[in-house]
UniProtKB/TrEMBL annotation, chain A:
It comes from the Eukaryota. Keywords: Cytoplasm, Cytoskeleton. The keyword Lipoprotein does not apply. Pfam families: DCTN5 (PF21711). This is Dynactin subunit 5. It is found in: Cytoplasm, Cytoskeleton. One of its GO terms (cellular component) is dynactin complex.
Automatic annotation (TrEMBL), chain B:
InterPro entries: DCTN6 (IPR027777), Trimer_LpxA-like_sf (IPR011004). It comes from Mycena albidolilacea. Belongs to the dynactin subunits 5/6 family. Dynactin subunit 6 subfamily. This is Dynactin subunit 6. The lineage of its organism: Eukaryota, Fungi, Dikarya, Basidiomycota, Agaricomycotina. One of its GO terms (biological process) is mitotic spindle organization. Its main location: cytoplasm.
Automatic annotation (TrEMBL), chain C:
GO terms for cellular component: dynactin complex; stress fiber. Residues 246-257 have a biased composition (Basic and acidic residues). Keywords: Acetylation, Coiled coil, Cytoplasm, Cytoskeleton, Isopeptide bond, Phosphoprotein, Ubl conjugation. It is found in: Cytoplasm, Cytoskeleton, Microtubule organizing center, Centrosome; Cytoplasm, Cytoskeleton, Stress fiber; Cytoplasm, Myofibril. Residues 184-203 have a biased composition (Low complexity). It comes from Mycena albidolilacea. InterPro entries: DCTN4. Residues 184-207, 232-257 are annotated as: Disordered. PANTHER family: DYNACTIN P62 SUBUNIT, DYNACTIN SUBUNIT 4. Subunit of dynactin, a multiprotein complex part of a tripartite complex with dynein and a adapter, such as BICDL1, BICD2 or HOOK3. The dynactin complex is built around ACTR1A/ACTB filament and consists of an actin-related filament composed of a shoulder domain, a pointed end and a barbed end. Its length is defined by its flexible shoulder domain. The soulder is composed of 2 DCTN1 subunits, 4 DCTN2 and 2 DCTN3. The 4 DCNT2 (via N-terminus) bind the ACTR1A filament and act as molecular rulers to determine the length. The pointed end is important for binding dynein-dynactin cargo adapters. This is Dynactin subunit 4.
Amino acid sequence: MDPPIYYSKAEYIETDTGNKVSRRATIAGPQNIILGGKTIISSGAIIRGDLRRTGAGHAVVISLGRYCVVGEGCVMRPPYKTYRGNFNYYPMKIGDHVHIGANTVVEAATIGSHVEIGKNCVIGKFTIIKDCARVADGTIVPPNTVIPALALFAGSPGRFVEDLPESTQETVETQTKRYYTRFQPLDR
Amino acid sequence: MAPIRDKYTIHSKAVVCQDVELKGDITIGSGSIVHPKATIFAIAGPIVIGSGCIIEEGAIIVNRRKEVMRIGDDNLFEIGCRVESPTVGDFNTVSTRARVHHTVRIGSYCVVGAGCLVVPTEDEFLDDYTVIYGPAAERRTWSGRGKVQEADLRRKHAEYLREMLPKFNRLRRGEGS
Amino acid sequence: MPPTVDYHCPCLSQSTVPPPPHLPSSLHSFHPLHTLFFCEECDAVRCNRCVSVEVSGYYCPNCLFEVPSASVRAEKNRSKSPCFGARCARNCFMCPNCRNTLSVVPSDPPDPGDGRIAIPISTVGEPPFFLYCNHCRWDSAEVGITFEKPTGLAAQLQKFEDSAPDSLEFERLKEHFEPVIRASSLSSSTTANAPAAHPSSAAHSHRLRTNSITAAASAALARDIPGVSKYNPLARSGRGGGGAVGRDKTTNKDEMPEYRSRVDIASASGRGTGGGEADVEYMRHLENVSEVANLEQRWINSWATSLQTADLKPLRIPLHSKRSKRCPACAHILIKPEQKAQSVRYKIKLVAATYLPAITAALPHAQDATNADTAAKRTLGKSTSAAAADDDRGAGGIHAGKTYPFHLALTNPLYDPIQVRLTVQRVHSSASTAAAASEKARRPPFAVSLPSNSFAIAAYAEAWEYDLDDEDDLDEMFGLDDDDFGVAGRVPGREGAKDARGGKAKVVGVLEKKANMTVVGGEVVIGKEARGNVKFNMLVSYTYRSDDPAPSESNDAAEGLTPARAAAAGAGKPPETKTFAFYTVVDLGPIIPREEPRHVDPDF
């Protein structure tokens, strides 16, 4: 029923697992970024895989699950702090079916699955967002905030507004899958 | 207005990524960091940035005035913020997506909260330890407790970036260094 | 705004017919499908407005720690303001200034005094610790609260809270009323059983007990409202004289001494609780407005608090609850969450979306406009998007005096195929008879035609979930002139030929079938003087085949069966059919009046 959302075929690179990444997105340190498959990185997004934890070995900095969308102009950046006197960046983990609206900045520690984040939000450092939560457009979530499962947060500082319906998981899953299906190339 | 002449003076210990937009007469001090996708525009007068500052991705620093825009030491300009203040002291934090107009001069140890708009029509000076927060850009004065730890964090952060950023990003070198 | 379809919940009302869509009350009886429940016992839709709700567990929204209900009661809510519900008893606090969550931080190392910033050597942090807000930078040391250790803050803070005048007062009040509540709860729990109309079950005993306590407590409170109290002794003595058989058995147990507050309110202002001369004096010498705490910062506290920001204390975080929901008619459980606080699963979850077909509406002419727009946007770059959006409004709008086709896509959630019939509710049905004259003027300024025949929607199968050939499907989906047979032929169901009535360019009728979704077309003729929204009530009735006689047809019956096998099994037995009907309201959007054909109302 819903009309397709067209993108220019030349702009996006599609991977074997169905990830679609805009050539106009800035992906720093791609070797430290994992995309789960069927995840879309829109144009103008910045993903900082270069801000990795110090120490030897291969370090995953940012991982996104399946059917995620990183909107236009989003910045995804791992959080940092000093712990026992040592400075470090810490990895950011994002589950499946997570949509992040345009121009939102994310410095969260973990985001669960089936989470919707609106546009123009600021998700502070080390924020934990549990499953099926939703963050309204323009919300400022201060560092270290915990957003419980099935909660709607809004405002500055972002605060609990209401509980979301019991069927949120199914609704979000359908929507994110449909979005991926609608996201179609146009030959020009 | 005379055409802008580009002149970048970047200290040898500063780290400025290649993917940064610079325009006009810009001086960047020792140990300062400019992340990729940041923008520094000296449209009218020059911009002088002190040492130990961190300018994150998407941050925009603009000087619209004729006079020199002076930014002190150890300031943090977070993701996507926009600063046009003619003077900025030391150890300030302009948080993510905050905007500060050219009418505002910033003291030291000030915090402009995430998403705050500071756009007064008349000239204003933010006293030391001013905190601006919330949707209505409310103000209060910070007690200053914890500033030593915050300074420690900022210094260690800059130190980390000086080491790590060159590993993943190509750097720019100024003519004057 | 895209067109919407909301579903009606009768909410135990006698009439199952919803109010006409232009009445304001209609707004409250229609809900999005995903917020509704379905009771299998009653075979009825239920909504959040009518279900009965029970708390099945508490948790702190910050530390996510589960708090057993028993300890919520036992720990007297660990709250400075008992009237505002249960609070986290661990280390979670809210900023009294901006309501952000506070963090515990150590102090800075001593300043060397030479103006330079010393780098701290200690890795664990120096005491004293304090609570700090990283949003507005308020800290608890500002109001003189510091901690020796960064752990067990609640216990450390308890001393402050317990000595606060209002919590001492509350304790006294509780002590004063305790015997009365105990006495009346004993008697009312025996009386409450008699009028209880609910079928008795183990789950109900809990509810009854809490009910009796609240009933007793509210009864006790009502008798002690200061203004009313002086009439009470008279009434009581009168009744006592005429034989002690009151209407309410609990009244005569209510011989209690008068309560005297711990401190006189006139002198309270002197004790830092605000009010009276002290505040006036304080305000008189005020130099900075920010020294006065605003109302929002103060009202979460109990009745009398200090005016000064300097007296704001860290707030404990209120607990959240997980809730079970029951059918209001039969008390059948509809929602039962898992125990674990952050689990999003449910032991029982009977939601309407798994029983009723999901309906979405669309205006094809508006979609064409946006499609053209998106295509243009992509080639021309983002700069045109604003202009294009303006254009799109005009192109996608509904103009008075014109005729528009619309599409309704129905998706079947059941593991059996269904037959659906759609009917538009005529507005003259119930409400207009009452106020015929005024209703006449309010007759909908548009006429809706829908397919009159019933049509089929194929069964849901897990296989549809796999988007194997997305691209092919999409091409068919949007090439609406495609041969209906070609599309229908892909459906493994038996119908297809039956629905393909009418010619090529049909508007009203079945347009497309794909997996468990059927798209039907309708048409709306907008009157010349029309205003407001194109909004109408639509009755959806569907017939499904049920293999087992019980109404629980969908989940257990077809689990693990492929659609082919399910169909085969159904074919073997004599098919038993059931019909279910529900109302929806379809809102296609605002009508653009004729005078300004390209101008949409500003809210749009």
